[in-house]
Amino acid sequence: MLSSCAEPCNGRIESTVLYFAEAPNHQGQVVYANVANKPDLGVKHTLMREDKEFGTFGNVIIIQDPQSKFKGRHSICFDEFAPQPTPADGQLDETDIPRIVLK
Question: What distance in Å separates the CA atoms of residue 36 and residue 66, rounded to the nearest whole number?
């Protein structure tokens, strides 16, 4: 039965994980995600990985995950979040992507 493999959705805002990256200063990871049902949260953005175009997505956000609790997930659902500032040492082509931390 495959239902045991399904990830629980514990929130009204649904996002699909695009990929994970190490957070600055080895502080966990950041999750690049495309939000499915809250169009005012993310931005349309073309993501690059290893100097190659990864794809253009319509509602991209970056979720800070200092404890790496979302590692290996394909989707993340949530209700409450707090906006986070863009780090000073962040990638220049990502300054328009909203960064959040889940509560």
Answer: 23
**Alpha-carbon distance values, 72 to 16, 29, 45, 58, 94 (Å):** 12, 11, 23, 22, 23
Beta bridge partners of 30: 21, 64
Question: What pLDDT, in 10s, does the model give residues 23-76?
Answer: 888 889 999 999 999 999 999 999 999 889 999 999 999 999 999 999 999 999
Buried b (16+ CB within 10 A) or exposed e, 32-70: bbbbeeeeebbeebebeeeeeeeeebebbbbbbbeeeeb
Tokens of 54: 């990864």
3-state percent breakdown (helix, strand, coil) of the chain, nearest 5: 10, 50, 40
